[in-house]
Amino acid sequence: MVVLGGLYGLRLSEIIGLRLQNIDIENGAFSVVEQLPFKLPKDTKIVAEFAPPKSHGRTLPITDETMPFFHNQLSLLTKQKEEARQSGTPYYDNSLLICRANGEPHNRSVISSTWKRMLVSHKLPHMRFHDLRHTTATNLHGLTGDFYTVGEILGHTLKGLGFSLGISGNLESVTAQYIDVRIDRKKSILDVYHQALGLNKDAKNQEMKPDVPEEKISRKRSETSL
Fold this sequence. Notes:
Layout: H1 2-6, H2 12-15, E1 23-24, E2 29-32, E3 58-61, H3 67-87, H4 108-121, H5 131-144, H6 147-154, H7 158-165, H8 172-176, H9 183-196
Antiparallel strand pairs: 1-2, 2-3
Helix pairs in contact: 5-6, 5-9
């Protein structure tokens, strides 16, 4: 989850609602066109209908640094299904990339609680899972200065992105000129960020290894909702 939240800026509902049919490993891209419904009952086993994303959908490139994550998740799904088959226990296939061991969708509140415990156990400062999205916005803009493409990657209006980055001024006119950035441009921007993090592509069991000076990769937090 941290890979999709901290390296792509996906919202939590978009992460736990990302389905396999929206991932194209062969062409190195995935589409954020739906999300897990907010008011999904806690004991839901099969999701009858997914919700549209909070803002407009977008297609994002899978970089060389994040491709291992997708392969690892797909392998994990195969393993979980096989274990369920061998044990004779039910597997609820929602075609989710990230799900519980029995295929059920994750619960947002449970993830938030687990996230908080993880921060405490590692003696890390408090931050919301959603703050990973703000971190992504800050670092992408700080490393590249490409306001338009960062907005497209995050799937947000330029006005909303401006507020998150602390850029003042009337951005209504800028938002009206919002452009559809080609995926190759998105990839070039994401490549800069992912490579700057110093991700270890050979480590199969590690999602990410930050190795960047603090002045390059900041951890900006904001209460502004992206």
